[in-house]
Amino acid sequence: MNFHVTRQAAVSSLALAMAVPCAFADSNPVDTVVVTATRSPQRAPDVIAQTVVVDAREIARSGAGSVADVLQRQPGIEIARNGGAGASTSVFLRGANSNQVVVLLDGVRIGSSTSGVASWNAVPLEAVDRIEIVYGPLSTLYGADAIGGVIQIFTRKGEGTATAGASLGAGSDAARQASAHVAGTAGTVRYAFGAGHEQSDSFSATKPGAFGFNPDDDGYRRSSTHGRLALALAPGHEIGAQVLHSRLRAQYDSGAGSFDSRNRQDLNTAAVFMTNRFLPNWHSTVQLARSEDKSGSFANASASGASQIDTRQDDLSWQNTVTLGADTLQLLYGHRKEAVESSSSAALGRERITNAYAAAYALRRGAHLLDLSARQDRSSYGDKNTGATGYGYDFGGGVRASASLGTSFRAPTFNELYFPGYGVPTNRPERGRNAELGLRYDGARTQLGAVWFRNRLTDMIVSATPCPDSSSGRTGSCAYNVASATLEGVTLSGATRLGALRLRGSADWQDPHDNGSGKRLARRAREHASVGADYRAGRLDTGAELQVSGARFDDAANLRRLGGYALLNLYATWQLNADLSLLARVNNAADKEYELARNYGTGGRSWFAGLRYGIR
């Protein structure tokens, strides 16, 4: 498809078609509160950035098997996975690399400092209460790596009367799942606790022709616990703590033989926080958090086949929000310390400290909305200044137009700086400059809209051969700032309810390409879409969704082609009584053969059935 022709047609349709989060179709958008877009609660109609909110009901209705599966059906998102649900997973947002997206779990940043990527396969879906996706550069609010956007995952908080929930299910490939949770308020204490376990024999991670191919099944086991406790000291003053632990054990292929090659992944987060309303218009939040990403690999029985890489991130943030009439002023200080330990390379065993100072101002004057923000990050890679501005105009009747400009950056990973023979300590951060236009309609039953964006990236770090840094006698490849790229595209999406029928859909046309070679960025399609329909008849909810992707390339040279695909998923929920429901789901109902990564396996037709007590 010729992107330029498509883009012109799509941009010209801005006056006719308008995009908005498909997840808002279940409730009135006026009642939806978004946190991630501005780091503080805000009504959805007042959010200028393109934002999608996926709530617990939406997750439960979909019957998705992982967080990545939930994300894949949202606008602007593609995924790549090296095998089944327990395998390494990448999430591309608006064509940006997986390491150009910030991932937060209850406000705590997660991910590896060596690869720069979050461990999506270790995030337990059963703990998730809500997901917010904010598109576009957010470095002024979240610092390094927020080039494509920010994805924040929320667990349960505990509000109102005590509630409890549990689920039990089984499916294809000996899949088994069980979880339970309790949440609520007791006097001045808010609490939420939960635990879950899932496992599957899955399928072979690789296909014939792949390096290390072994035709055995490569299953996984994941167990998790999470909790949150908050105490109200006085009206407007609260202290609390939250924790999450997830342990993943997944098999993979590293060659034929009897040895069980496997990965060990532990994801841990912990935080203590204090919120204070010192004045009626002054709200302060202090949080001290730690996240750990522990990754171990056992390729064979020898000592050389084992490796362990652990990342620890400590964050201190102090945010002050001051309400000035209809306007809001935010002042933020952040301190972040990254530390890596590696059994395979002592050179990676380093620390990095970043201090950040940011300010944001949200102005509201009648139909006009204006957001301004600026930030400075001071770290070993130098000082980075970023800024952003967004403007929205409300025409009335639920119609609003918006425009924004913003800069962002990605910090070099520890691998790109220090890995022996590959890293270059003088590598600079990648830089992004984004512009976008949007138009949307928020109605009681229907939401529509469109967004056009163009994000130009410079100083991109890629594997350069031969290495431009010849100071140490290098002759092979290395990580180096030698590339630039442009991420450009249009997203159309919408949702509506017609009586008992709920329809939703989104379509993306994009051109993420390397400016030097003109080649498309690896594993990203020019077009992809998701369409779904749900129908309620008494106690029965039935639904179908179609996920479509165009062809992609598995390499930067665009020589290894991955064909396009269309996947049909079917699901139904029978409400047995007010609290108990039965869920059934069929994934890839047409048994389509496809690839998300070259020579890595994907699931054929599969089924899952489960019993749920409570909403989630």
From TrEMBL:
Swiss-Prot/TrEMBL keywords: Cell outer membrane, Ion transport, Membrane, Receptor, Signal, TonB box, Transmembrane, Transmembrane beta strand, Transport
Q: In which residues does the motif TonB box occur?
A: 32-38
InterPro entries (alphabetical): Beta-barrel_TonB, Beta-barrel_TonB_sf, Plug_dom, Plug_dom_sf, TonB-dep_rcpt-like, TonB_box_CS
Domain TonB-dependent receptor-like beta-barrel span(s) in chain numbering: 211-588
A Pfam entry, by short name: TonB_dep_Rec_b-barrel
The UniProt record lists the keyword Protein transport:
no
Q: How is the protein disposed in the membrane?
A: Multi-pass membrane protein
Q: Where in the cell is it found?
A: Cell outer membrane
Tell me if Signal is a UniProt keyword of this record: yes
Q: Where is the signal peptide?
A: 1-25
Outline the extent of the TonB-dependent receptor plug domain.
Answer: 49-150
Q: Which domain of life is it from?
A: Bacteria
Q: What is its main location?
A: membrane
For this chain, the family text in UniProt reads: Belongs to the TonB-dependent receptor family.
Q: Which PANTHER family match?
A: COLICIN I RECEPTOR-RELATED, TONB-DEPENDENT OUTER MEMBRANE RECEPTOR
UniProt protein name: TonB-dependent receptor domain-containing protein
Organism for this UniProt entry: Massilia niabensis
For this protein's source organism, the top of the classification is: Bacteria, Pseudomonadati, Pseudomonadota, Betaproteobacteria, Burkholderiales
